[in-house]
């Protein structure tokens, strides 16, 4: 994963893949905290990862909505960026780097409460997330996040993990650890 500021050193003939851009993932997490969190925060890394899963994999979110008997208002169908099967379900190994990056930039504060971490936007992070949310480039992602929050926002990380394992046996549960989720 590279910062957009380092792309100038790459040869012009090598294509830039959005999934490799640090700032794209950081922007998504800022929006996730603002739009899917409660008062700009999310309690627990598991909850953050599972909400992010449903944002990045809208087809899985749509299936959960059908199972829960609610309609998904967002109609996004494409996978934004891949995640892998991990011990606790869908996971992106870049979370640690991204969260540290956001904290280092003064956009996020992280604190440990008993056995869980709380991730909260700082004033600077709230401001940045608001700018991103109003940018037309993020319209589909913002709509997806609002749908995810309305359907799943009140569930705990453990409840989301169990739901994913119950519903997505072939796609997630039975997949080997470290394999990309399709």
| Chain oligomer state | single chain
Give the number of DSSP strands.
5
Shape verdict? globular
By secondary-structure content and strand pairing, the structural class works out as: mainly alpha
How many domains, in number, for the residues?
Answer: 1
- Gyration radius, in Å: 16 Å
As residue ranges, the low-confidence spans are: none
- Percent of residues in helices comes to 40-55%
Strand order of the largest sheet: 1-5-4
Mean pLDDT reading: 85
Verbal overview:
By secondary structure, the chain is mainly α. It contains 8 helices and 5 strands. A 3-stranded antiparallel sheet has the order 1-5-4. Helix 1 crosses helix 4 and helix 1 crosses helix 5. It is globular and about 45 Å long.
